[in-house]
Amino acid sequence: MKAVLMVGHGSRDPEGNEQVRNFIDNLSNQLDPNLLVETCFLEFESPNIDEGIDNCVQKGATHIFVIPIMLLQAGHSKIHIPHAIDEAKKKYSQLTVTYGRPIGIHEQIFEICKDRLEEIGEDPSSPNNDTAVVLLGRGGSDQDANSDLYKITRLLWEKLNYKIIEPSFMGVTDPLIQEGIDRCIKLGAKKIIILPYFLFTGILIKRLENMLAMFKEQYPDHNFSLANYFGFHKRLETILIDRMEEALEGEVKMNCDTCKYRIDAMEFIDHHHHHDHEHAHQHDEVYK
């Protein structure tokens, strides 16, 4: 039997974890009913990925398609999930595991961003010249993921008609959101829209809502708006179904099983994501 294991990051905020579950439950209704669909998390929530694989096997799965519910390729998708897959293959010698891609740079993400701007009254095809957008990512220590946000920002600028679209991060790496806003103001923006490049709610989204009030007080002569995160968007369903179909049809374009650097890299990772307990690590403040 085939199973799809959807892997979310997990959050200390129960609402964010519940949003992931509800999203996947709804997605499951659009898939082949003979396909087992399970959800797990990397941290802060159960079941963890090891338990998720166990659940699939216990329900009769002989081939598991692991799909990361993550926006960008970073340490989790490059090292931690493949490590869990390696351990599962040792534990279940007859098990076949296919690893799918994260969301990455997908055409539909730009449509989601456009929709989120329109929801707050913007006309992305003809915006005011003094309106700027800050595309806000989580931020992390992975250079590829951080640079991908820059690429996405540029592609969004190409597709929309805003003169100013600036990338910023909530933590770990620069430019942080304060710097992004300062730059927009120096470039002449009178209205600044913060567009969160986040999948679901969590501690950081709620922190961002509080920060908005601070920015309004700090810059009384400027207008600020906060767009919604991706959330329950039909186009996000389309993206994840695309990633599932790639894996199910054997067309995955990124497969860490053949990466000669991954196994050696595990020796230098501070944590191996054994999630029978909570723990803290470098990106606790960004991946929530």
TrEMBL record:
GO MF entry, a single one: metal ion binding
CDD domains: CbiX_SirB_C, CbiX_SirB_N
InterPro entries the record matches: CbiX-like, Sirohydro_Cobaltochel/CbiX
One Pfam match: CbiX
Keywords: Lyase, Metal-binding
Protein name, per record: Sirohydrochlorin cobaltochelatase
Organism in which the protein naturally occurs: Thalassobacillus cyri
